Amino acid sequence: MVANNSVVWIIGVAVAFSLWLAFALYLLYQRLSVEYQLTTQRLFHRKGILARVTNRVEVIDIDDVQFSQNFVERFLGVGTIRILSTDISDPKLVMVGIDDVKSVFDTIDKVRRDERRRRGLHIETV
Hints:
Elements: H1 2-33, E1 34-38, E2 42-47, E3 53-58, E4 62-68, H2 71-76, E5 78-85, E6 92-99, H3 101-119
Antiparallel strand pairs: 1-2, 2-3, 4-5, 5-6
């Protein structure tokens, strides 16, 4: 009876460790394969490790920006930013695992508003 209990514990620990390792590898892949760059006119989104795909969203085409953090994200100091735009390639861009999410959110929104003011577009009417 004691031997069966030991085997169950060993299997349980092995499964938990395997799940943890798979999750850690997934996060490492995400960290290495996704990159964002914000300029005064464009938001670039690069994805992939071996084959790289780059999309860009014109800042002026961004209609709405929002961010969220669940309990785990708040604990880790990261969050998710959702961008709604009129861009054809990424009309609903979701940026996951962003460090200092509130600051990045504010920066994207400020660049969007500044570009709209510079081009003479009213933010409330778009």
